Every structure is written in structure tokens, then in C-alpha cells.
Amino acid sequence: MFEVRELDLAGRIGRIKTNHGIVETPAFLPVIHPANQSIPARDIRAMGFTTVMTNSYITFRRHGGDAIEKGIHSIIEFDGPIMTDSGGYQILEYGKVSIGPLEIARYQEDIGSDFSNVLDTPTGVGGSRRQSEESVKKTLESCRITMEGLGQDRKSLWIGPVQGGKYLDLVTSSARHLSSMPFDMFALGSPTEIMERYDFTLLAQMIISAKKALPVDKPLHLFGLGHPLPLAMAVALGCDTFDSASYILYARAGRYITETGTRRIQDLEYLPCVCRVCSEISPRQLNELEADQRENKIAIHNLYMLKREIEATKQALREGRLWEYIGSKARAHPNLWAAFEELAKNSHSFEVFTPSFKSRGLMLSSYPDHLRPEIMRTHERVVSYLSGRQRRPLLILPEGRVRPFVYGKAYEMASSAFEIPFIIGYISVPVGFVPGEISDVYPYSQIVITPALQSDPRVMDQFIKVLTIQLRSLAPSMTFLVRDGQLDDSVYDLLKTLLEPKFMISGDEYILESTLERIKKILDD
């Protein structure tokens, strides 16, 4: 049902097979109102959205048996895959709905939904721990009733809703219980209020808490994400599909979506977009339109922005530069930067999903780029490589300009100068010690690092810990060190204390031939 084609961090480009075609993920699903939709679904389809979401409970109330006879695709005039919500949002807004979980489940099957949702009880944000526990309990019971009632003859792809809100242990527990049920995919509930408050760190924590308890081979939907700002981060954390009516709700309030936030249309002197709406009208002309015309044009622009963000995220994922893309987005808002730091703290969780080799090098600009999975992997690779090579002499040379280091003149001469096997390599922040023999392995020679990152105290603190582990695992019999002045004094202090080098030559004294002769003399003595 779900085929993964590309991976980066926990993000993936995949394909979900449905009764009405293939859905390529990540995918944004515009919400279509089944009875009062101002932007026709066929126009949304023409903009490139292959999948949409609509509400089965509202369909039930407004169309009843007519939707069963005609099918939901005919009702909203959309020929691609359709996901239906079950009324959970109405429970969150109004406290209850006049239908049971099995009844609305069968209705979704009968109207031909491609993706169907269980009638859940959303946790929300403001509730107490006890209320949140009750919402999880009710949702799980609704899931049990639905899956047992439908049996094996399900026509839709069924989605299990994870609840728990800000209580992360409840999110994990909810996900763990759902993972034992026969759902085709899962969804994380209650994030809309969180995103309205721009609490992106809590959103990241919720996704991480859910993902660690869910099967990795099934897609995860995120309810209610309708802004470009956190979308790439949510993809990187492992979300595959998203839905929202934000495009029209923002438009009704005169809110114009940009890459970095929303703007009041009356505050704009220029439209920073070249979509078919913005390239044909000025802000003044837009403000002078009748309310419904202005709303529709802003809504269309907002959809284009959401479409653009999905495509940009997918391209970044495919190129293996999702981390860089998130970092560039994160600088647009302090709360998103805080969420980026939360992602970085959990980067070890993404290492298994991140390709070992990429077609592009790594761009390390600033904290916390040193924590990205590819860099963490290099730390472990060095320790693994040095295993079994302990008690050999160690020669640490300057990194030099030739890449890979193994092809440089210094390594070539040094590696052939001695009869006994040496470990020869260089030290680079934030990678650590790099033995020459593996310096041509990705990404050692494909990293671009700014001086700002290399001098950041937070980076250096972590780097010193990594370097200590690496060198202790080597435990060289003797060490020879060429100090080139490029590394922080704290690194040389560590090397002197930990390795007690036989000699340490400063950069202005360094001549390779004489250095090698000095080492030979020490070995002979």
C-alpha cells in the first residue's frame, strides 16, 4: 500500500495506492467543504493538488443518502483520491456530534472515501491531564469499535488517530496501542491549536513521541497543518500527508501567506509572489475588490504557496539537503528555530533513515548543524575503524587543501616513510579525527564549514567530547603532532594531555621531509 522511494532524515517521498489513483507523499490535502465551497474542487485539482480532504460528518448532515447514491467524488466534484474526516473537529469545537463511530465509519465506506478517519475525541491543548487521558481512552475505544465492526471487508484505507496533546507520554501510549490495530496509516491529532500559537517545539515533540511508537512502514498524517513555515520540519520528522482549510480561512481574514509568515493584505505595498493571481493584480486593486472576490483571489494565492512549499520540500528531500532547507526556514521565526534545535537534539533517531551517501556535500553554517545525522555517523565510523588498530604510532598532520586527504602529498609521503604501520590522519571540527585511509569516504571530503560554526563554544564542547572518545579508542603507542594554528587551543590542550606527543611542531616550523626524518630518528632510538 505504501512504497517509499526516497529518504532523508525521517522524511520520505513515497507512493500510497488508493482506489482513485496514486498519492505521492509528502502531500498537502486542501480541505473542501462538502456544501459551501467557494473555490471549486476542480480548480484546486487544476492547480496540481491530486488529493483533497472533506468532512464526512458535514456530508452526512447536508447530503445524507444522496451522497451514498452519488458518491463523495461526485458530491464535491473531484476525481482524485479523497480523505474524509469523521467529525472529530466538530467534537473539539462543539463538544459532541449526533452520530456514533461505527455509523460514521460505515457512511465513509458507503460514500466511497479513499482514506477514512475514525471518529476520535481530540485532546486539544488547554485540557487537564485527566481530560487528556479521557480523550485518549475514548479515541482508542472508538478505534476498537470501528475496526471490529467493519471487519475484513474494508474498502477504504483506514487511519488511526493518535491523541494525547501536550502530554507526550500519552501521545506515545496512544500510538503504541494503535499500532497493534489493523490500520493502514495513522494520524496525529490536535495540532491545530498548537500551530495557531506557533508552538512549533511542542509540535515537534508530539511528532517525535508518536513516531517512535508507530510502525515505520505506514504513513503518518498530520491534521491541520496549513502554513508553509513548519511544513518542511514536519516532513523531516516523519509526517507524510497534511490537511488544512487555512487557505480559505486566512483569506476570509485578509491574511496573505508568504514563505516566512502571513501578512495582512492591507499592509502590503508589494505582492512577493508571481503566481497567476499576484502577477496580474496590485495590493491596492486587491483591496478594492468586493469581499468575496478578494477572498477568492487571496485563497488561490494561499493554495499556490502551500503547493510551492510541498514541491520545494520534496526537491530538497530528493537532493539530500532537507536539513539545510529546514535550517533556512527556521531562521524566519524564533519559535521555529527552537523547534529546529529540538529536531537536532533527536538527530540520532534519524540516522537510520538518512542515506550513507549523497550526491551533494554537506553545508555546515552554524549551530546546530554539527548535530546532523551525517556528522554523528562520522563519529561512530572513526571509532569502528580504529577498533583493532590500537597501540600503533599516530601522526596527526594538518588537513591541507587537497581533498580527499589520502590523495595529498603529505599523506602519500608519510604513509610510505615508515616500516611499521602508522595511523596517519587529521583533525577537523566538527568531524573529529579522520584517518587518511577513510578520508575519501562520504562525507569527509564533501563538507563546507564556516569559521563561525568551528568557533562556536557549544560546537567545541561537543567536539572535544567526541575527539576524546575517538582518541581513547585508538590508544596510540606514541604520537607525533603538527600544529598548524587552524584548530582551537582547547584541541591542542586535549591532545597534549591525552596523548603526550613525542613532539609537537608548530605550523611555521613544519617541513614535511624534516618532520619525517625526526620521527624516524625517534623510532630508531
Describe it:
With 525 residues, the protein is α/β, with parallel strands linked by helices. Helix content is 44%, strand content 17%. It has 22 helices and 20 strands. It has an 8-stranded parallel β-barrel, surrounded by 6 helices. It has a 5-stranded mixed beta sheet with strand order 17-16-15-19-20, with helices on both faces. It has a 3-stranded antiparallel beta sheet with strand order 1-2-3. Strand 10, helix 11 (228-236) and strand 11 form a beta-alpha-beta unit. It is elongated, with a radius of gyration of 28 Å.
Quick recap:
The chain is 44% helix and 17% strand.
Biggest sheet statistics: 8 strands, parallel, barrel
Distance from N terminus to C terminus (CA atoms, Å) equals 69 Å
Proportion of residues in β-strands: 15-25%
Q: Pairing-aware structural class of the strands and helices?
A: alpha/beta
Number of strands: 20
> What's the overall average pLDDT, rounded?
92
Whole-number radius of gyration? 28 Å
Draw up the topology in text.
Layout: E1 2-8, E2 11-18, E3 21-25, E4 27-32, H1 41-46, E5 52-55, H2 56-63, H3 65-70, H4 72-76, E6 82-85, H5 88-94, H6 101-110, E7 115-117, H7 129-150, E8 157-162, H8 168-178, E9 185-188, H9 192-196, H10 200-211, E10 220-222, H11 228-236, E11 241-244, H12 246-252, E12 255-258, E13 261-264, H13 283-288, H14 291-318, H15 322-330, H16 334-345, E14 362-364, H17 373-386, E15 394-396, H18 409-415, E16 423-428, E17 432-435, E18 447-449, H19 451-454, H20 457-474, E19 479-483, H21 489-499, E20 503-506, H22 512-524
Parallel strand pairs: 4-5, 4-11, 5-6, 6-7, 7-8, 8-9, 9-10, 10-11, 14-18, 15-16, 15-19, 19-20
Antiparallel strand pairs: 1-2, 2-3, 12-13, 16-17
Helix pairs in contact: 6-7, 7-8, 8-10, 10-16, 11-14, 11-15, 12-14, 15-16, 17-20, 20-21
